[in-house]
Design goal:
Layout (H helix, E strand, L loop, with lengths): L2 E10 L2 E8 H20 L3 E3 L8 E6 L3 H4 L7 H4 L2 H13 L3 E7 L26 H6 L3 E5 L8 H9 L5 E7 L1 H18 L5 E5 L3 E2 L8 H14 L3 E3 L1 E3 L1
Parallel strand pairs: 3-11, 4-5, 4-7, 5-6, 7-8, 7-9, 8-10
Antiparallel strand pairs: 1-2
């Protein structure tokens, strides 16, 4: 039977402890687990805007830039297809006077992120700009970010301090398993650390990721959704009027 050796932990100083996974058993168990997760995701609720206090909420649009939706090394049709839904949510938030933030990936040549990803969203290029459809609606606070986690940006932490009444965050954009997941979990952990209750809501029809090699879009979306759920993020099917 085939197996995979995985380094699990350091047993003693300088000594690695190895755990052997039996491949067939692992795959069988994983299939059962994935089936259970899918059953759970199929039962996710739909949230209504009427349940949300508009003056305490913000729509967060993550990385809906040309460099992920329309051009460049990391463009994805799945991300492009998010544009109409996020535009709808943006217009709903304008009608309800819900604040909005838009994060935009924006890098320089010095970015260490390019050790892991191809060059993308370079500062001063069209790739780093929010897509026109969302930009034309406007009304958001633009925050440029130089890492996958927008929470780390000083401009966002300043915004949080200047808006202490906000306790509901509606997250949209890309990528579900990278920037969205990192921001959602860090944000939730921040409020937990400060003993404050906050809703971090992720409607699954307003986030997505990409297909590339072993990075299977559907699998990554499912696992990211599950990981956010077990970290206290409110993952839902949709958010509607």
């Amino acid at each position: 039977m085939k197996y995979v050796e995985v380094i699990m932990s350091i047993k003693d100083e300088g000594e690695f402890f190895m755990k052997v996974l039996q491949k067939n058993e692992f795959l069988q168990k994983s299939n059962e687990t994935l089936a259970s997760i899918l059953d759970m995701l199929e039962k996710l609720p739909v949230v209504k805007f009427d349940e949300i206090e508009a003056d305490k909420a913000v729509l967060v649009i993550i990385d809906m830039t040309n460099g992920f939706a329309k051009e460049g090394a990391l463009k994805s049709d799945a991300v492009k297809e998010l544009i109409p839904r996020i535009c709808e949510l943006s217009e709903i938030c304008d009608r309800r006077k819900i604040r909005k933030i838009a994060f935009a990936d924006c890098h320089t040549d010095e970015s260490p992120e390019f050790d892991a990803y191809p060059k993308h969203c370079m500062k001063g290029t069209a790739e780093s700009e929010i897509v026109d459809e969302i930009k034309n609606i406007g009304g958001y606070t633009l925050i440029e970010k130089n890492s996958t986690n927008g929470f780390l940006e000083e401009a966002f932490r300043k915004w949080l301090l200047e808006n202490p009444d906000i306790n509901t965050f509606i997250l949209t954009g890309d990528c579900t398993d990278i920037c969205v997941q990192q921001f959602a979990i860090t944000l939730k952990a921040y409020f937990n650390m400060n003993n404050k209750r906050a809703r971090v809501i992720v409607p699954l029809n307003a986030v997505d990721t990409y297909d590339l090699g072993v990075h299977d879009r559907n699998l990554m979306n499912v696992m990211a959704a599950y990981n956010m759920i077990i970290n206290g993020v409110e993952v839902v099917r949709d958010i509607v009027e």
